[in-house]
Amino acid sequence: MTDFLEAVVRGVGLGSVYALLALGFVIIYKSTGAISFAQPALMLSGAVVASYVLPVLPFGSAILTFFVALAAGALAASVLGLAVERTAIRPMIGKPVFAVAIITIGIDIAIRVVANGFIGLGARPIGNPWGLDHFTIAGVDVQWRHLAMFVTTVVLVLALFWFFRSTKHGLAMRAVAFDQEAAMTQGINVGTVFAMSWALAAALATVAGVFYSTVSGVDQQLWVVALAALPAIVLGGLDSLEGALVGGLAIGVTESIVATYAREVAPWLGDNVDRVAPYALMLAVLLVRPHGLFGTPEVRRL
Description:
This protein has about 300 residues and is an all-alpha fold.
């Protein structure tokens, strides 16, 4: 039982990273109607900036230094997201969604090539300001970094819900997500909403990437982590922020539990079956709920 609970705790920490990435995907999808495959590159870029800012900060506190570098990386990624939206995505308004998705794939590759040049062959260390020490609750070992990931995700999610429900810009983004044409008739600048969605998604992706890098550092394969968020958004529902959160946590916990027990229960499946488990869970849910757990069913009138 202790092993199971520890696997769940690790999964919640990992799932928090997936949830932040999934939230970025969903925010862009709700605003523009297209899935941005440039999220991995924006995540990588923000993490790279954070890795360069971290060593030059003069603060004595490791935790303060970490969060200042994290904020700098998120800001840089947001600016990059704004630039991408303005130069490459804005001219595609009104074009087929498939064409926009293909363009984001090209953008992702181009940005990652540049970011990889700043990373080099090794990994740029981020460091873990909480250390690798753990504490015990009722016999269950909990790593500080997993707790920090989860708490940070909860704070950001609460801030997002407050933003969308209580601020002018947040309400504008909700209106555009509901009906772009109706929002335009009410005087809402749809282009500005598109730009904000890209900036916000890039910042969330950076937070996820930096937290994920606290152990192994920022390397050229970091972008692969963002691909694990795709089952999360499909599982939770492409147009649901709540679904992105639940889906991310569910994928993280599933991956952690399978990694803990797969070799013991089914060694013939191999060592990397935990990477396949999220997709299996996604398929199982889609067989029952084709639009995801919280997705809005599409109604077509004949």
